[in-house]
Amino acid sequence: MAGHGADEHPHGADRLCEAGDRVYSRAVRRGRVPRRDAEPVPCLLELALLHPDPDDMDWLVPTSPQEVMTRLLRGMHDEVSASQRRVGSAVAAVEWYAGLGRQVRPAASGAEGPAIRVLDGLARIQAAMDEATQACTTEVLTVQPGGIRREAELSEGLHRALALRGRGVRMRDLYTHVARHGQGLLTYLELMGDAVEARTLDEVIDRLILFDRTVAFIPANSDRTMALELRHPAIVEYLVTVFERLWRLAIPLTAPLPDTGIEGISHREQSIAALLAEGHQDAVIAERLGISVRTCRAHIARLSETLGAASRTQLGVRIAQAGLDGPQHSSASVSVPGRESRTAR
Predict the structure, then answer these.
(1) pLDDT tens across 211-237, in order?
(2) Which of 217, 210, 231, 212 is nearest to 169 (CA)?
(3) Residue 60, Cβ neighbours under 10 Å: how many?
């Protein structure tokens, strides 16, 4: 949107430009406006006064005037002594917009905002996460897919985690087994102490963060530059149930992974064998287990060697014969086709 950058709209939500005032007023009166109407006034999106409609991304819905007021007052709290006139202007502006929108049915979640909110852009996501962190008093549940966590990812959320620990908030994190090999995660958990409990699984669902079982954040696109903030009680409760069931299946990070019962086959290779038996391609298996495609293929090669398979087709047969295509083994000894029976390590 060349020509409509921040330089042409140097204002806050409490003193909109004339064009922004017209579009936001129309959005409050009607409940939403076409995305094209906001193209001349990017300030409305930059200030989060408009955001994408979850049901139709070609439309924008307004943030309620009451929520705008709450946000403004929170931001001005630290400088209230030098901003009295601005607070007065903000109150007057919000009261004006609230009058325009009285006929609009308020969101079910009241002062907490809409039940589903689209967060467009990393800055919006971070701001919403910081706000949820500040309001959290009891518990945070997270699912972190993707294998070994990068140092940058861990550092990005460290300030929130430390703030939560300082208030006595308990945290439970789910990772893939691969994450056990990342020194950054181990350092992070050592820093957090008993405030965080971590467990791992072969596979986990996509990223999920739950605060106090009242608000959840999930990705809204593949590159995670958009997210959904969920406050609908039924949706949040469903996600909590999913987390708790995964948690019961997961293995504590402090405990070793179970032995496969087959000499020469690691726990990860057993997981790969089961996914191969389901017909998944190498790239899909690598993504689900949080490893690179190259690493996945190296494990497949070792599987083939251990099971005595000369081709992918034969490997599938060997996997089935060894019973690796179903639930993971707990027996102490398993016969590998074509080889003598071996005792588990």
Answers:
(1) 999 999 999 988 889 999 999 999 999
(2) 212
(3) 25
Give the pLDDT confidence of 23-75 residue by residue, as tens digits. 988 998 998 999 999 889 888 888 888 989 888 889 999 988 888 777 766 66
Beta bridge partners of 199: 174, 252
Nearest residue to 97 (alpha-carbon basis) of 28, 19, 18: 28
Distance (Å, whole) CA 303 – CA 295: 12
DSSP letter string, 188-211: HHHHHGGGEEEEEES---S-EEEE
* Each residue's pLDDT tens digit, 101-130: 555 554 444 444 578 999 999 999 999 999
Integer Cα distance of 267 and 269 in angstroms: 5
Residue 285 in contact with residue 296, Cβ under 8 Å?
yes
For 74, residues 6+ apart whose C-beta sits below 8 A from its C-beta are: none
| Global confidence as pTM | 0.59
Token pair for 96: 């004006």
Integer Cα distance of 55 and 210 in angstroms: 23
Under DSSP, the state recorded for 322 is T
What six digits make up the tokens of 133?
């962190």
What CA–CA distances, in Å, run from 27 to 35, 44, 67, 97, 280? 11, 11, 15, 10, 47
Question: In Å, what is the CA distance from 203 to each residue of 10, 71, 199, 286, 288?
Answer: 47, 38, 12, 10, 6
Q: CB neighbours of 111 closer than 8 A, spacing ≥ 6? A: 66, 67, 70
How many C-alpha atoms does 291 have within 13 Å on its Cβ side?
22
CA–CA distance, 253 with 338 (Å, rounded to integer):
36
Helical packing angle, 312-321 and 267-277, nearest 10°: 110
